Amino acid sequence: MTIPNAASADRPAEQRLDLIDALRGFALAGVLLSNLRDFSLYTLIEADAPALWPGERWLQMALAALLDAKAMTVFALLFGVGFALQLERADTGNADDSRAARRRYAWRLCLLLGFGLLHAAFWYGDILRYYAVLGLLLLPLARWRPATLAALGVLVAVFASAALQPWMKPWTAQFAPAAQAAAEARAAFAAPSWTTMLAGNRDYDLWVHATAWSLPLFTLGRLLLGMAIGRAGWLQRPQQHLRAWRRLLVWTLPPGLILAVYFLFRDFGGLGPELLGLQGGAARALSRLLRNLAYLSLGLGYVAAFVLLFQQPRARRWLAWLAPVGRMALSNYLAQTVFGLALFYGIGLGLGPRYGLIGVLAAFALVFAAQTALSHWWLRRFRYGPLEWLWRCLTYRRALPLRRAPGPAPAAA
Fold it and tell me: Is the whole model's pTM more than 0.85, yes or no?
C-alpha cells in the first residue's frame, strides 16, 4: 500500500478537524461499551455467566466479533494521527523552534503519563500510560515516510506478538491462573471499602499488565499506523484521498469480518486449536497472527467506512453530533471511569454483573447520551474540555483562557 507524503498545510493551530473529532467520538462510544463490561465485573465471570435472557449468548458473540479490540484500535490510531499533527504544526522550518516544540510535546506526553498513572490507581484498564510512553519512543520516528511507518506498524501489530508467543508462555505461567486472579479482583471490586477496592485494583493491574504482554505491541503498531495516516494527510484532507479510503475499506472490512466469523466458531463453537493441518505451537502462532489481523483489519475498516460516510451530507449531519464528544476525549474517557465505578463497584451503587449484558447496554445508553449532551453544552461555553484545558495549561505552564468570548454559539461540527 503506497501512502504519499502529506504536503505542509498553512492553517491556524486552533482549527478543528471535525472529521477527526467525530471519529474520536465514535471510538469513545466503542471504548465505553467495551469497558463497561469490565466496570460491571461481567468479564470477571464471563466464562460462567448465566444467560439472563434468551439472546444473551448471541449478544456476547456479537460484541466479541464486532467490538473487542476494534474500538481500542480506532482510539489508538487517532492518537497516532494526533501525534503526527502536533509535530507537523510544530515543524516551522526553524531548527530552534522545532527543537523547542518537540521538547514541549515530550513534556505534554509526560503529563499524559501522570494522568494515566493517577487513573490507573482507580482502574486497572487505563491505556493512557501506554500512549504516553510509546509516544515518547516514537519521537525519533516523527519524520519517517508514511509508507515506512505503515509497514512497520503492520509488522508490529500483526506479526510481532505471534513471533514472540512461544518465548512468552513460560513468563505468563509463573503468575496466578486467570480464574483465581478474576475471583480475587471481583471480591475486591464488589467490596464497599475504598481501601479494599484500591488494593485489589493495584494487584489486578499488576497481574493484567504482566500477563497481557502483547498490549504494548498492540498499541505501538496502531500508533505507527495512525502516524502514517496523519503524515499522509488522509484525515485532514479526506476528499483528496477518497480513492485511497475506498481501497482501504475493500482491503480491510471484508477480510476482517470473515476472520471475525471464523474466530466466533473457534471461541464459541468449541473448535479445537488445529488450523490448516497444523497442531501445537505452530497452530497457536498462526492463530495468534490471524487474530491480530482480524482486530487490525476490522478497526481500519471501521475508520474507512466512517470517513466515507462522513462525506455524505445526510450522514454527516448525524455523525457530526459525535464531534464535541471527541473534542473532549480526555475528559470523557476519564469520566467514563467515574460513571463505571459509581454504577457497578461496591463503593458506588454496587450493581455489579447482576443484570448481565442488558445492564451493560442500558448503562452505555445512559452514560453516552449524558456525555454527548454535556459535551455539546460545555463547548458552547468553553474553548476546551476541563481536563484538556488543564493539560494545556500545564503544557505551556501558564493559565490560558477557558471561557469563550460572548458571541454566536459555535456549530457542533
Answer: yes
Among candidates 70, 115, 15, which has minimal Cα distance to 333? 115
- pLDDT per residue as tens digits for the range 375-411: 999 999 999 999 999 999 999 999 999 998 775 544 4
Burial 351-372 (b: 16+ CB within 10 A, else e): bbbebbbebbeebbeebbeebb
Q: Are 102 and 386 in contact (CB under 8 A)?
A: no
3-state secondary structure of 194: helix
Render pLDDT for 201-218 as a digit per residue (tens, 0 to 9): 999 999 999 999 999 999
**Residue 173, C-beta contacts closer than 8 angstroms, at least 6 positions apart:** none
Torsion of CA 385, 388, 394, 396, to 10 degrees: -100
Q: Are 101 and 83 in contact (CB under 8 A)?
A: no
Query: What whole-number distance in Å separates Cα of residue 395 and Cα of residue 401?
Result: 14
Core vs surface per residue 126-143: b (16+ CB within 10 A) or e: bbbbbbbbbbeebeeebe
Written in H, E and C, the secondary structure of 29-81 is HHHHHHHHHHHCCHHHCHHHCCCCCCCHHHHHHHHHHHCCCHHHHHHHHHHHH
Helix axes 18-39, 56-66, angle to 10 degrees: 140
